[in-house]
Design goal:
By secondary structure, the chain is an alpha+beta fold. The chain contains five helices and four strands; from the N terminus they run E-E-H-E-E-H-H-H-H. Strand 1 and strand 2 form a beta hairpin. It is elongated. The protein binds adenosine-5'-triphosphate (ATP) and magnesium ion (MG). Magnesium ion binds next to helix 1.
């Protein structure tokens, strides 16, 4: 990804004032800085979650494989560019099972219900949650 002269303001507060950054593929890139310096704001731009904040004004461009993310289908972009939040955000109107199964279903990664159940169970076991939630999935 290439970030070009990215500027983000919330109302009159300019949070990002012209960020230029290249994020190479297949490597880990870490952003470091004091609380409030705009790290999460950059991440919210990269998959356009920033558009959920009507007060945010975004200028500049972000290229993914040479193409502007702002001209892409937002769903396709978010399938490739994702954000893991500091605090988990289960979807409140879905059950525990459905929350865990959602990604597998949307991306058609399982073939049948049995396999889906097995993958959900595995995921909950890895997160040390299975014993706690297995009776109220
Ligand atoms: N919706 C918003 N409206 C107004 N100001 C906002 C909004 N969201 C973030 N900000 C401001 O933008 C600045 C950057 O916030 P951001 O969350 O990106 O910082 P951060 O570097 O991720 O901080 P932390 O290390 O605490 O996670 C902060 O000053 C914050 O108060
Ligand atoms: Mg943050």
């Amino acid at each position: 990804m290439v970030i070009k002269n990215l500027k983000v303001a919330f109302g009159s507060a300019e949070i990002l004032r012209g960020v230029n950054l290249e994020i190479p593929p297949n490597t880990i890139t870490a952003l470091m800085g004091p609380s409030g310096s705009g790290k999460s704001t950059i991440l919210r731009v990269l998959n356009r979650l920033i558009e959920l904040y009507p007060e945010a004004r975004v200028r500049g461009d972000v290229l993914l494989d040479g193409q502007s993310i702002f001209k892409m289908d937002v769903i396709e972009l978010r399938k490739r560019v994702q954000m893991i939040f500091q605090i988990p955000n289960p979807i409140p109107n879905l059950s525990i099972f459905e929350n865990v199964a959602l990604g597998l279903k949307l991306n058609r990664l399982v073939n049948n219900k049995k396999e889906l159940f097995q993958r959900v169970k595995e995921a909950l076991e890895k997160a040390q949650l299975w014993e706690e939630v297995k009776d109220r999935l």
